[in-house]
Amino acid sequence: MRKRARLIYNPTSGREALAHDLVEILGIFEKAGYETSAYATTPAPNSAADEARRCAKDGFELIVAAGGDGTINQVVNGIAGLKRRPKMAIIPAGTTNDYARALRVPRNDPVAAAKVVLKNQTVKMDIGQAGEQYFINIAAGGLLTELTYDVPSQLKSIFGYAAYLAKGAELLPRVKPVEMDLKYDGGHFTGKASMFFLALTNSVGGFEQLVPDASLDDGKFTMIIVKTGNLAKILHLMTLVLNGGKHINDPSIIYAKTHKVVAKSDADRLMINIDGEYGGDAPMTFRNLKQHIEMFADTDRIPEAAITDTDPEVQDAERQFVSAVDQLPDTDDENDKTV
């Protein structure tokens, strides 16, 4: 029986260029050996997630998410909780397209993006879980949450990443640190910070040097806590980011790898951002689901350090260890390391 693929596309993403290439894109997946059909998302809540879940349960071998990072997030949320998860491919048609950048999928040519499947190269990607939600790129609290909420969707479509930069310049003078309590592997931070975030890839808001050593499949988040709220210091940190990722050694930064984070704030409201959208308030627990979804990617162009090559038996032992750790109760042990 021939394999089946479902293209789930957002007809309003980016500049709506996808519809023009739809027939050619479907032909590419047919050439790759998939009987391919398409579904246009609707304004209904969770339209993409519901269709992805339906297709997965119906036995489709491949789901193609075509749209911005939000569409990809929805599709992942539709299948991540299932025991049997089909492979995924992506066709970027959004603003920053961070996920496509990390997978080295062409971001300005939907047809070229579809042709990645013809290389038959995949990566078993980590994804994050925050409560009942799943995320593909970042979870954050603090400054980043305000930045992404305050950029109108129309500006994102017209001006792209420049809209984020403009809003960031406007917001920086108003940045105030908030009380945070963050537990992570081997560490416990308590105090004021202007933001924290957990990254799954090396592309965050278009910056590839923000998490320069990120791995796509090692089962760990790259965590950054920005302890300063001083405007001049934050601007200095941004220059270090652009200057080869040198910010990771700055004393105002906590930079760590962790498979789990428990975030709360007893004094201030701490809003949580999940892949660019409001995801609720702390307290919240974040877990990394190692190699959870297999994605088509151009692995020839992905840095070797970003993909692990671990023996399957070692991977299984690691999964058992992580599972055992997750069963342990969260405690407020006085011996927690304070950084």
Automatic annotation (TrEMBL):
Residues 1-134 form the DAGKc domain. InterPro entries: ATP-NAD_kinase_N, Diacylglycerol/lipid_kinase, Diacylglycerol_kinase_cat_dom, Lipid_Phosphate_FormReg, NAD/diacylglycerol_kinase_sf, YegS/DAGK_C. It holds the Pfam family YegS_C. Gene3D superfamilies: 2.60.200.40, Probable inorganic polyphosphate/atp-NAD kinase, domain 1 (3.40.50.10330). Keywords: ATP-binding, Kinase, Lipid biosynthesis, Lipid metabolism, Magnesium, Metal-binding, Nucleotide-binding, Phospholipid biosynthesis, Phospholipid metabolism, Transferase. GO terms for cellular component: plasma membrane. One of its GO terms (biological process) is phospholipid biosynthetic process. The keyword ATP-binding applies. PROSITE patterns: DAGK. GO terms for molecular function: ATP binding; ATP-dependent diacylglycerol kinase activity; metal ion binding. Its cofactor is Mg(2+). It comes from the Bacteria. PANTHER family: LIPID KINASE YEGS (PTHR12358:SF106), SPHINGOSINE KINASE (PTHR12358). Belongs to the diacylglycerol/lipid kinase family. This is Lipid kinase. It comes from Lactiplantibacillus fabifermentans DSM 21115. The lineage of its organism: Bacteria, Bacillati, Bacillota, Bacilli, Lactobacillales.
